[in-house]
Amino acid sequence: MVISPERLRMLEVIMKLSIDNASRALSKTLRTGAKITLSKIYMADFNEATEKMNTDTREMTGIIVNFKGNLGCKMLFMLPLEGSTILTDYYLRQPVGTTKEFNADTESVSQELGNILASHISNTLVSDFNATLLPEPPQVHNDYAGIIFSSLLLEQGIYCDQLLLVETIFEICKTEITCYLFLLPELASLGKLLDAIGERK
Amino acid sequence: MKRILVVDDAKVVRMVIKQILTRNGFLVVGEAENGREALEKYKELKPDAVTMDIVMPEIDGIQGLKDILDYDKNAKVVMISAIDQRDALQAALLNGACDFVVKPFEDDRMVSALNSVLAKE
Amino acid sequence: MNDAPNIYTVGVGDAKIARAPNQLKTLLGSCIGIALYDPIAKVGGILHVMLPKKTGNDQKLTKYADPGLPFFIGQIIKNGGASKNTLLAKIFGGAKMFETAGKLINIGEKNEQEVRRILKEEGIKIVAAKTGGTKGYNIALDTTTGNVECRIFGEAICIY
């Protein structure tokens, strides 16, 4: 599927709106700012993207959310393992350092942060595209960054070498935590989304 | 003291809701992780009101709401979810939810939702 | 074929061949990594397969155990100067991580079964295997020794 630069630009604006909403919801949930330092949308070659990431052995917590509805999409929220313990303390309104290691609370907080982000992204996309899009319960997994990222792409990579990726980097204020948010809309159902944009022209 | 059942698949969300409710004079009598457990606990505990998430594994919150109202047509259920979409709101309200609180919320918003629902006895 | 001494990364669904003293490395989740090594020719390679069998018109054979593995064996013999009689195999990966649906259910297990079947058919001996579990694998093949350094997430490094 070929996406014209003009439509890619439109998609970028709408995706950014949804991520802005998600970032505000994240800030409110954690009671600290989640500052977006990078946000881009691009067509990625499956092999190039995974080869690049396959060198990344940082230990991360990955939260993957599948969406159901007429617009297929996956979301990955990924943050350093030690960052997820700090965010647990923020979420539970307790002093930073209370949570010493990844435990059942950390897993549950990660799951909830994934739920908040995915829900607010879908809220914006649904209202802007007249689509149906609901997140499924998030799955949390600790592993190497490269493995988590590849897991996001794997299913679509089977069918298609070209993927549309929306990549966002957040920095959590008052901490040194850098978080990564990837959205991977299914190209097959993306046509509908693009048609909706076309109709508004 | 009003007795509340808290339903959410995330343990920490149940913890936070319980803290807020306890601080505001409610008694959390039970917790459930999905719609199926919610009905079981509702039958067992007969709470005055329920807070219900929507996206949950197995039986989701909309089905959980329907099941509880089928069992007790006077049940008071407040939906608490990050899903802020017309379809979800319609499904909740048409199936008998008393209120809909969007996450993340201010503590007062949830407390006032429960207070006003419970005042309508 | 890479000749400069270096560490090369093998991407998902890809394959690389290298000669001593180079190293090849890759990360594996549900995919299976097949490290082939010829101790006489001092040449080795890693094939990173995503799926057991190719369906459809995909041109990238190395994504699939069948026909990617027979193709890869042919390449290491033809371009690397390895001999089928002395080639040894070590296999890693095939973890079950995120819950998946459709084609990806138990994909790690299916990948491993297919890889074992093909290696048996090709007459290549599996001298080491570390597969399954729920965490990712970080592997590196040293083409000087044929050793594979394997670190499963959260565990200590093991040499195979």
Layout of SSEs?
The complex is a heterotrimer of chains A (201), B (121) and C (160).
Chain A: H1 5-30, E1 34-45, H2 46-53, E2 59-69, E3 73-80, H3 81-91, H4 104-129, E4 133-135, E5 139-144, H5 145-159, E6 162-172, E7 178-185, H6 187-199
Antiparallel strand pairs in A: 1-6, 2-3, 2-4, 2-5, 3-7, 6-7
Chain B: E1 3-7, H1 11-23, E2 27-32, H2 35-45, E3 49-52, H3 61-71, E4 77-81, H4 86-94, E5 99-102, H5 107-119
Parallel strand pairs in B: 1-2, 1-3, 3-4, 4-5
Chain C: E1 7-9, E2 15-19, E3 23-28, E4 32-38, E5 43-49, E6 51-53, H1 65-78, E7 88-93, H2 107-122, E8 125-131, E9 137-142, E10 148-152, E11 157-159
Parallel strand pairs in C: 1-3, 7-8
Antiparallel strand pairs in C: 2-5, 3-9, 4-5, 4-7, 9-10, 10-11
Helix pairs in contact in C: 1-2
Describe the structure.
The complex is a heterotrimer of chains A (201), B (121) and C (160). In chain A, 49% of the residues lie in helices and 29% in strands. Chain A contains 6 helices and 7 strands. Chain B is built from 5 helices and 5 strands; from the N terminus they run βαβαβαβαβα. Chain B has helices spanning 11-23, 35-45, 61-71, 86-94, 107-119, and strands at 3-7, 27-32, 49-52, 77-81, 99-102. In chain B, β1 (3-7), α1 (11-23) and β2 form a beta-alpha-beta unit. In chain B, α2 (35-45) packs parallel to α3 (61-71). Chain B is globular and about 30 Å long. With 160 residues, chain C is α+β, with helices and mostly antiparallel strands. In chain C, 19% of the residues lie in helices and 36% in strands. Chain C contains 2 helices and 11 strands. Chain C has helices at 65-78, 107-122; strands spanning 7-9, 15-19, 23-28, 32-38, 43-49, 51-53, 88-93, 125-131, 137-142, 148-152, 157-159. In chain C, strands 1-3-9-10-11 form a 5-stranded mixed sheet, with no helix packed on it. In chain C, strands 2-5-4-7-8 form a 5-stranded mixed sheet, with helices on one face. In chain C, β7, α2 and β8 form a beta-alpha-beta unit. The longest helix of chain C has 16 residues, at 107-122. The model of chain C has no long low-confidence stretch (mean pLDDT 91). The chains are: A alpha+beta (201), B alpha/beta (121), C alpha+beta (160). At the A-B interface, α1 and α4 of A face α1 and α4 of B.
